[in-house]
Structures are given as C-alpha cells and as structure tokens.
Amino acid sequence: ATALIWFRRDLRVADQPTFLAAGRGARALALFVLDPRLMGPAGEARQWFLYGCLRALDQSLNGRLLVVEGDPAQVVPRIAREAGARAVHVAADFGPYGRARDEAVERALNEQGGELIRTGSPYAVAPGRVRTADGGRYRVFTPFRRAWADHGWRPPAATDAGFLDWIDPAALTVEALPIPSRTPVTANLPEPGEAAARRRWEVFRREHLEDYADGRDRPDRPGTSRLSAYLKFGCVHPRTLLAGMAGSSGSGAHSFRGELAWRDFYADVLDQRPDSAHRNYDRSFDALVTDSGPDADRLFAAWQEGRTGFPVVDAGMRQLLAEGWMHNRVRMITASFLVKDLHLPWWRGARHFMRSLVDGDLASNQHGWQWVAGSGTDAAPYFRVFNPVLQGERFDPDGDYVRTYVPELAGIAGKAVHQPWKLPGGPPRGYPAPVVDHRHERAVALERYEPVRAAR
Ligand code: FAD
C-alpha cells in the first residue's frame, strides 16, 4: 500500500515517527501544503526560513517532495486519491487552527475510505499527557516540569531518508508548486534545514551547554543554542536534544532541559485554553486599562523601530528587525517596556513579534508575552516592573550588546552606553531622548493594576 507522509512542523528525516508508522520500505509520497491561512501572520524572515527548510528536505528526498498550495481539507484528500494512498501520516498538531484543520482533513479522508494517522508531535511529551495525580492538567510550571520529567519521552526514532520508498511526484497529475524562493530580508538568518540544525546543536553542546545556566542570561554573548527556529519547524526534534544530553547531570543540561519543558508546558497550556492565544489567561486582567489613539500609535512605532531612547530596548527591537530573533532576556525587557512603560496591550506587541520572529510560535510567544504582562500562568508579579537601565547594566554589563545593534551609540565605551542622556553633551546625534520617564510610568502602571487586584 502507498502511504502519504504529510509534513508540517517536522521538516526532517531523522527521528521521524511517521515513517515508522508507514513501515520500513513502504511506498510513500512526501507532501507539504503551503496553507495561505498559516503564511498570513508569518513575516518574511519566517517564510524565507520555511522555504529554505523545504528545499533542504526536498534535497534529502532526492527531489521527491511534492509542494502544493491550498486549503489542506481539499488538497490532501485529492492528492491521497491521486497517489492511491489510503493512509495519510502526520505528527499531531495541537494548536487551535491545526487541530481544527486536521479534523476537517480527517473527515474528508474518512468519506473516501481513507484515514489520518497521527504519530508523534512536535513536543517531547505531547500536550495532555502530563497529568496531575487525579488526572487534571497543570497550570503552573514547576510541578508540570517535575511530572514531565517523571513521564519521560521515547528515544529518537531511528529513521533516515532511505527508510521509505519515495514516489516521484512528477508521475502524478497534480499541480506541483516550485518551492518559492525569496531574497532574505537580512543576512543574519539561521541557515535553514535539518543538517544545519544538527551542526548548530553540536556546536552548542560542545561549547556552551556546560555554562548554559549562567550564559543564557547574557545577550552580549553567544550563550544560548539559537535552535528555536529549527525546533519551530521540526528540523530537529526536542527528543533528539534530550537524548543527546542523557546522562548529563550538570547545571547547564538541567537548565536546558528546563527550557525544553517550558516549550512543552506552553503547548499544553494552549491546548487546555485555546482562547489564551488571544485573551488574557487570567481574566481579571480584562480590567486593566490600556492606551490607544495617535499618541499610543506613535509610541508603538518608536518601540517597533527601536527608537525609544532606552538603549537595551532599542538594541533588542533592532536585533529583531535585523535577525528575526531576539535574546530571551531582551524579549522580556522589550515586552515589559511595551506593557508597563508604554501601557499598550500585550497582544499588540505579540503580533509584531509573531510577524518578525523567525521562530514565531503561537504557544511560546503569546504565553511568553502574558508571563511578562502578568496575565499568564506563573505570572511574574505584576507589581515588579523591569527598569530598562538596570536590566541593561546587569545583563549587558559592558554595553557590547547595545553597541552591536545601535550604531549611533557605538562610540560610547562601557556601561555608560545604557544612559546616553547622562553624557555631558546629551545623547549622540541621531539617537532619541527617552520617549517616557520610567519612574513616572512605573507609578502609572502600578496605579492601573489596582482594578485588576480588586477583580481577583
Ligand atoms: P535557548 O535558550 O537555547 O533554549 C532552547 C530552546 O528551549 C529554545 O529554542 C526554545 O524552543 C525553548 N525555550 C527557551 N525558552 C523558552 C521559553 N521561555 N518558553 C518556551 N520555550 C522556550 N520562543 C519561541 O520559540 N517562539 C516565540 O515566538 C517566542 N516568543 C517569546 C516572546 C516573549 C515575550 C518571551 C519572553 C519569550 C518568547 N520565546 C519564544 C521564548 C524564548 O525567548 C525563545 O525560545 C529563545 O529566546 C530562543 O532562543 P534559543 O533557541 O537560543 O533558546
């Protein structure tokens, strides 16, 4: 029997449970559907990266990846018929859109006597698997993490490109789409594809894993894995990473496992509460008054462009524009600034991040934002307001991060770069004065949280 392998967020051939489900040596058609509904919110960086990953996957399959465009509920059943495939294999998707899409595809397949077979997921432990003693779901990270580690995960699936007998899509009469090519918006995007993901993981494991527990908080140094875009598109599976650290009991490996647990946790939370993608997870935050109108729009634009006059905030926003990526610590600082200093709604910032990030992921992004805003799970206490100067001085102590991304400040030595308004001649030409007074806005933010506190 012929199988259809429908790739989505698993653009790799190693550790591919769907191949195991199809059975070694089975005749198989490899398919990717470009779904306009998913491409919409993705900006150029993520689209460019996705196309690169598809090209890399196609190469591993000797040019046998069929790429088509359209609504999967129509396209997938049609191609399955065309290829004579009864079984369509996928890794399960747990996002609100992906789940509904898969149910629609499944219904259409069932109507024609076919089936959708879900094997594996983009997570070490799929949403819904980690349960409390009485079968409930976790709403706080630390106990989730403990239960997640106890639950454990399967070893990587031993698959490669030769595991299945790939059909040449040219033999079918479907309108294949050449994989779109696009000039990258920036030269600094990660190299797409599975082989590049492996290389990056090996370098990180060799050079940075040991010091990761401390190194991960320093945006001025290359201390994190930068695997997020690869994980997003499944160029590498988290299980492969966990297996690669098996037996490492050091603090670096412990901390890195914890970050992979956060990724699984947020996917679980989104699965529990699909509405939390767009609404406050903690509904008492609906009582928070946020700003709108021309002044708010002007401040929002300054934030997006990295022209707030707060160097670490501006460096982060410009890193995002330049690389489609921002260091985690700086994601927290820039998000806090938007929500607590500019009093704008978190979802506005989240939408900009989702467009710009090469690793943009609904579960991690929306919940990362809500964690900062205070409206999410494990919320940072809302009354703790990041001071952008102190955060800069603490995590970018020599100012190297700021100087890398804000050329106007490149001539200022050391940590003085975090307070350019204190220089004898004021901020250098071309660099803005602070758009707000942090002390004042902090007080405003605390005042605005009063109705939230009352609603709890
Ligand atoms: P590393 O430090 O090397 O971590 C390894 C992996 O663990 C990451 O690749 C990621 O998959 C996972 N991870 C790490 N931290 C987190 C976290 N806090 N939550 C969930 N997973 C985590 N991550 C995304 O993948 N996509 C997003 O759209 C996203 N948006 C964010 C928005 C905000 C406001 C915040 C505060 C965080 C966001 N994160 C997001 C989490 C985190 O910032 C990134 O995963 C991380 O910076 C990616 O860089 P890295 O691969 O070098 O991370």
UniProtKB/TrEMBL annotation:
Cofactor: FAD
Keywords, alphabetical: Chromophore, FAD, Flavoprotein, Lyase
Any one Gene Ontology molecular-function term assigned to this protein's record: DNA binding
Record InterPro entries: Crypto/Photolyase_FAD-like_sf, Crypto/Photolyase_N_sf, Cryptochr/Photolyase_FAD-bd, Cryptochrome/DNA_photolyase_1, DNA_photolyase_1_CS_C, DNA_photolyase_N, Rossmann-like_a/b/a_fold
Residues reported in the UniProt entry to bind FAD: 212, 224-228, 256, 259-266, 359-361
Top-rank taxon: Bacteria
Keyword flag ATP-binding: no
Cofactor: record remark: Binds 1 FAD per subunit.
A Gene Ontology biological process term: response to stress
Location of the Photolyase/cryptochrome alpha/beta domain: 1-124
Keyword Flavoprotein in record: yes
Alphabetical list of PANTHER family matching this protein: CRYPTOCHROME, CRYPTOCHROME CIRCADIAN CLOCK 5 ISOFORM X1
Family that this chain belongs to: Belongs to the DNA photolyase family.
Protein name: Deoxyribodipyrimidine photo-lyase
Organism: Myceligenerans xiligouense
